[in-house]
Amino acid sequence: MKLFKGFLSILVVLAVWNMPVPEGLTVDAMRYLGIFLAVVLALILEPLPNSAVGLIGVALAAALRLVPLADGKPANAAGALNWALSGFIDSTVWLIFVAYMFAMGYEKTGLGKRIALILMKKLGGGALGLGYATALSDLVLAPFIPSNTARSAGSVYPVVKNIPPMYGSFPDNEPRKIGAYLMWICIAVTSVTSSMFFTGLAPNLLARTLVGNAMKADPASVISWGQWFVCMLPAGVILFILVPLITYVIYPPTQKLFPETPKWAEAELEKLGPTSGKEWLMALMAVIALLLWIFGDKAWLMGGYTINATLVAICVLCLMIVFQIVSWDDVVSNKGAWNTLVWFATLVAMASGLARVGFLKWLGAVFAAKLEGQTVVIVIFGLLALFYFAHYFFASLTAHTTALLPVLMATGAAIPGVDLRLLGMVLAGSLGIMGILTPYGTGPSPVYYNTGYIGKKTFWAFGTLYGVIFFAVYAVFAMYWFPKALTLI
Asked: By CB distance 3.0 to 4.6 Å, which of 1, 231, 264, 480 could disulfide with 485?
């Protein structure tokens, strides 16, 4: 099967290479497009690990010297290599990498588990309270763990999965008693928190880099951590509050009181023992990072000094190593983090190549001609709707971002009056919430789908229902709040 999937990607390359070259594009641009589309298809079908797919795509394009130099001159050997490695010096890629170390710190110290258990102890006596305890467990971790798979499936789910069996709720026996309710809240809430925080989802960071590339500006100067948070706060809070409440109304558990849950959580906390010094240190590091992410770029507040978000993360990682929250061996052996670094670095390079070969400018002009005469609000809303609901066709938010965001940004750039910074924030902010649409829409989705607590038809139906609700609430604030929010901080 993997061989067949790889063969399909090769067919894409050959098909595009043998197409007539449209007016306005070069032969090299079409060849690069073929490689790019094959990479996106391979990211979806996964004939090889995603990082290997990206590396192969970059290596092939560089070896063929398809991407011109930054000044438009034909590529030479040195220029091709510099382009191929350009993603590895991108600050956002390293911010993603270091954030994985934050997640490891939460896991190694046990702080993430302790937070979830404390919330279960305080709020878990009733069904609605249990739903909010589950939601808050994800929310507290979201600013620091950009992998929602590590956050939700790796930290929240291992705690929550123990609750349904305590009350005789199993996938094949009374799943509606409490299991189905909790599993749906887990996946719906992590979709919301993934959008609420810039560092709540790895593709958010990739998206900002692509927006910066489209604007030919430093991504950190285009959208800061604080600006993202201010933009997303109203819609995020509303959706966060609504998820457990709506689920309690339309998909209620058949049992409403759960007196054993707080007792179980208390017993688990006793097993963990008193809060350790390393847990307190990890909490302190998280607070330091969060404050500097929010205020580190404010020269007026920092006495004229500013600090980049990625440098903040690297400095905090160094402190985590010094205080032995994690060891250097932990850093070196974290395959997931290094794999993600290679994956995102190659995708950043591949996306930048689309602009260099002239494809994005050409395609943006084509789409812009179709939208001629429409108001700016309608254009931005239309591009948002296209970007959001196109996720039905993607099994990866990263592949979705890489494939569509540069194209839609190029379209906006070709339409007079469109604020590219606003358009970029509107599109990027929707990445987390669109994950709710399908059972394969975001990393944790298959985990909750495969528990068996929620039927297939129900999962698809609720994905569409919540997806529409999320989109409606988000779109209102994206259209009318984001323009003002981006000027506030």
From this structure: 231
Query: Which pLDDT score, from 0 to 100, does residue 303 have?
Result: 62
Of 86-95, 192-201, 267-276, 402-411, least confident by mean pLDDT is 86-95
Q: Would the pLDDT of 301 be above 80?
A: no
445 vs 285: CA distance, rounded Å: 30
Let me know: does 248 contact 134? Beta carbons within 8 Å.
no
Per-residue pLDDT, 302: 61
- The Cβ of residue 101 has, within 10 Å, a number of other Cβ atoms equal to 20
Please give the C-alpha separations between residue 285 and each of 75, 118, 279, 306, in angstroms, as whole numbers: 44, 20, 10, 19
Residue type, 62: A
Report how far residue 292's alpha carbon sits from residue 296's, in angstroms, rounded to the nearest whole number.
Answer: 4
Rounded Cα distance between 476 and 426, Å, is 11
CA 247 – CA 124 distance, rounded (Å): 16
> How far apart are alpha carbons 203 and 194 in whole angstroms?
10
Residue whose token pair is 């609000």:
377
Report domain extents, the chain.
1-84, 92-213+222-333
Q: What is the mean pLDDT of residues 179-184?
A: 94
Q: Which CA distances in Å does 193 have to 139, 199, 229?
A: 6, 10, 11
Burial tier of 189 (Cβ tally within 10 Å: 0-12, 13-18, 19+): buried
Half-sphere exposure (CA, 13 Å, Cβ side) for 111? 23
